[in-house]
Amino acid sequence: xxxxxxxxxxxxxxxxxxxxxxxxxxxxxxxxxxxxxxxxxxxxxxxxxxxxxxxxxxxxxxxxxxxxxxxxxxxxxxxxxxxxxxxxxxxxxxxxxxxxxxxxxxxxxxxxxxxxxxxxxxxxxxxxxxxxxxxxxxxxxxxxxxxxxxxxxxxxxxxxxxxxxxxxxxxxxxxxxxxxxxxxxxxxxxxxxxxxxxxxxxxxxxxxxxxxxxxxxxxxxxxxxxxxxxxxxxxxxxxxxxxxxxxxxxxxxxxxxxxxxxxxxxxxxxxxxxxxxxxxxxxxxxxxxxxxx
Length: 293
Prior knowledge:
The protein is of the alpha/beta class. It has two domains: 4-147, Rossmann fold (3-Layer(aba) Sandwich); 150-283, Rossmann fold (3-Layer(aba) Sandwich). It has eight helices and 15 strands. It has helices at residues 12-21, 62-78, 107-117, 150-160, 176-186, 228-239, 258-265, 286-290, and strands spanning 4-7, 29-33, 39-43, 51-55, 83-88, 122-126, 144-147, 166-170, 189-192, 194-199, 202-206, 216-224, 245-252, 269-273, 281-283. The protein has a six-stranded parallel sheet with strand order 9-8-12-13-14-15, sandwiched between helices. Strands 1-4-5-6-7 form a five-stranded parallel sheet, with helices on both faces. A two-stranded antiparallel ribbon has the order 2-3. The longest helix has 17 residues, at 62-78.
């Protein structure tokens, strides 16, 4: 039985793309707000006994999108859906995965519990930034998958840019797995720098003895938020003699004028995916999603 595809207000275009890849029609829904700001949700299809894939990204206004997720999934199960798989291309609240100061909420665990308790049968994320939690099964009790769009980003670079003498660079050790994946796809070398985070918006990138003089560089990371890490990385690479510098990421949040700042720092191009719609979202995540739906 083919699943029904539903997109929340943050991912309706992406849901259409996933449905098209699967040769399906996306299920019609109705979303609106009452004058007092309350959310109204209506599923305009018979879902009884059917499997449903609900796609909802959680960027920039995560609380709103998260609550809408709860309303939709609870409604689907109440209407008799056999199974609901939640696809969350950009998953907010994963940063706080431990208690660092007394009294702090462990947001990742709280959100995971709510997602489970509302009736989600399976959860799928894309390039989730896992810090101390290495696998989703340590947080979720339901089946979970963290898929990647990195090969699709690499293929876009291969097919659209003429980058000879190329090396892939990750800004820190957390980006090593993404740098390795992209480098393997492009059949080139990779390396990583060392990062020390001073505050949520300030980082120090420690230069390494890199042999990149005269090379073109592809900087790869999962998220570009304020751009601080990427800008510092560009500065280090330019001092080391890099030629063309291209920046690639899965989730282009691009907060506080991050994009022009990155270009000012010396990037020739910034490439992202549509997990978060933006000016640089030129690579689709639908093919990665359809592989697991």
